[in-house]
Amino acid sequence: xxxxxxxxxxxxxxxxxxxxxxxxxxxxxxxxxxxxxxxxxxxxxxxxxxxxxxxxxxxxxxxxxxxxxxxxxxxxxxxxxxxxxxxxxxxxxxxxxxxxxxxxxxxxxxxxxxxxxxxxxxxxxxxxxxxxxxxxxxxxxxxxxxxxxxxxxxxxxxxxxxxxxxxxxxxxxxxxxxxxxxxxxxxxxxxxxxxxx
Length: 197
Hints:
Helix content: 10-25%
Largest sheet: 11 strands, antiparallel
């Protein structure tokens, strides 16, 4: 079963959008997965074990990497397939190869403070939302001013709601500061990770 409907992606429009946004380069692909396929992924994520993880900048639940559920592994394989890689390269202008991903659940009290994903061969970050009845849990993207390679000033320049079926792609760089707002009620369920160099 194909999970993504790449024929619905307007790659030239997405590529133009990637370059013409506030904050740092990013695009939102609504209905990247829908209907019965989205329901199957939502069910798979619901069966997937998610361990509570916490640290200085986060509290959330995460699957293993890669997840155990065959449907989620199949989606990761499809994200790393030549047709998807070619679309991501055309949109972002970055050469990418493999994909690294896991499933996440944000429940009430879960959050991810501002950070970048820079390093470890990561070129493009992504989040694909399966289910959300969450209050909160939006993805904030910051516009940053760098000094000496470090963030000297930042402000929220774009906010992306975690709508089911929505795929967000965003640049990985020292200036790609982003966060997940605290979930105050409900659940935000996603597959997230990186396209690698």
